[in-house]
Amino acid sequence: MSPATDRFAPTAGTADGDATTLHLHGRWTLRYASGIAAALAGAPDGVAAVDARGCERLDTLGVLQLLRFADRRGLDYAALHFRPDQQPLVDAIEDVHDDRPTGKREYGVRAALERLGRAVVANTREVVALVGFFGEVQAKLLRLLKDPGRFRLTATVHHMEQIGLDAVPLVALLSFMVGAVIAFLGAMVLADFGATIFVVELVNVAFLREFGVLLSAILLAGRTASAFTAQIGMMVNREEIDAIRVLGLDPIDLLVIPRVLALLAMLPLLTFIAMMAGLLGGMAVGAFSLDIPAAAYLARMQETMQVRHFVVGMVKAPVFALVIGLIGCLEGLQVKGTAQSLGERTTSSVVQAISLVIVIDAFAALWFMQMDY
Predict the structure, then answer these.
(1) Any idea of the CA torsion for 226, 231, 236, 238, to the nearest 10 degrees?
(2) What separation, in Å, do the N-terminal and C-terminal C-alpha atoms of the chain show?
(3) Which DSSP letter does residue 192 get?
(4) What kind and span of H or E run contains 102?
(5) Nearest by Cα to 47 from 75, 10, 11, 81
(6) Are residues 234 and 361 in the same domain?
């Protein structure tokens, strides 16, 4: 460094008679990064405060170094003194000064166990939050019985249209195609035993008990849960949730309950549509590919169809609706105010909803099998 620039070099030292205050001078900027590190490294151990008002210039690097110096020495940020024109920069950096890039991913048994432990803890917190959120929503649903004026009929009907009516073509088309696929696969196996006619029972039981409600729930988990999270998350980002609370309104009454009630009303209807579409898909394959006339297919369906299979499928629909609605709304309310957080929560809501729907369906299938129903 030339003599012309030595006078700008950062320095740090204590004054005579006051060994607890570190006085800073010079330019604490990126250009003098090495000098800043050297000046702070030579600071005495008994420093209890830092006076940066003597700094001629101060940029982001200088503030970061001072904040991290305070962290290392265990100093409170109130012990750092800056000029009034420097304080806004310090305030802007203070909340993010320790957000450093993550290090290179470690491999090995210990690192794998650590990641597994962190994942278990995070998932446990999500489950606890979901259970608590369910309790809060349930309590406020019961409150509607005492105070019906809190119920948002217009919002509920609006969400019913978005969730139900707009999803009917997609649910019907996919269910029809899956019903046709199941009939094809069943016919391939049953034809070897000369029992192609049993394709009717296969399609009936599969769609009435499982596929009708499962396909509808998975489609709504991907389509509706993500929409709920994105809508509520954007309201969090724009501080609309805070504005709702300032107005004396409850975000649960205003945003969550209409969406949950709309799902509870529409998922059973979509399940019924999916069941009918799946049965039609199986009948179409039987009529055009398996040489089973439509009249014979319908007659066989009428003879073998049991109401208990339909009841099993419909009973699961409200449970899946509640799970999808709660997860979608909870993830939206947990958005932290950034675009990255919104994307992460939207992805998380879809993954959690689909995973939980499948897990609940598996346990329900085992339970009904043990009950011989």
Answers:
(1) 140
(2) 86
(3) G
(4) none
(5) 75
(6) yes
Q: Provide the 3-class DSSP secondary structure of residue 12.
A: strand
Q: Work out the pLDDT band at 99, boundaries 50, 70, 90.
A: low
d(CA 91, CA 69): 16
Closest CA to 152 of 58, 248, 262, 247: 262
Question: Which of 300, 291, 102 shows the shortest CA–CA distance to 198?
Answer: 300
* 244 within domain boundaries: yes
Q: Tell me, what amino acid is at 270?
A: L
- 217: Cβ contacts below 8 Å, ≥ 6 apart: 267, 271, 317, 320, 321, 324, 357, 361
Contact status, residue 322 vs residue 264, Cβ threshold 8 Å: yes
C-alpha 55: how far from its chain's center? 46
| 189 plus 338 within the same structural domain | yes
Quote the pLDDT of residue 31: 87
CB 253 within 8 A of CB 152: yes
Q: Say if CB 171 and CB 277 are below 8 A apart.
A: yes
Count other Cβ atoms within 10 Å, centred on residue 244: 16
Tell me the DSSP string of 311-363: HHHHHHHHHHHHHHHHHHHHHHHT--SSHHHHHHHHHHHHHHHHHHHHHHHHH
pLDDT digits (tens, 9 = 90+) for 10-25: 888 887 767 788 888 8
87 and 166 assigned to the same domain: no
Of 55, 70, 94, the residue that ends a domain is 94
Give tens-digit pLDDT for 142-152.
988 888 888 88
DSSP-based three-state secondary structure for 17: coil
| Residue owning tokens 């799970």 | 323
Residues 62 and 29: beta-carbon distance below 8 Å: yes
Q: Rounded CA gap, 137 and 330, in Å? A: 10
83 shares its domain with 175? no
Half-sphere exposure of 105 (CA within 13 A, CB side): 4
Indicate whether 249 belongs to any domain: yes
- Report the CATH number at residue 32: 3.30.750.24
User: Are 243 and 258 in contact, with CB atoms under 8 Å apart?
Assistant: no
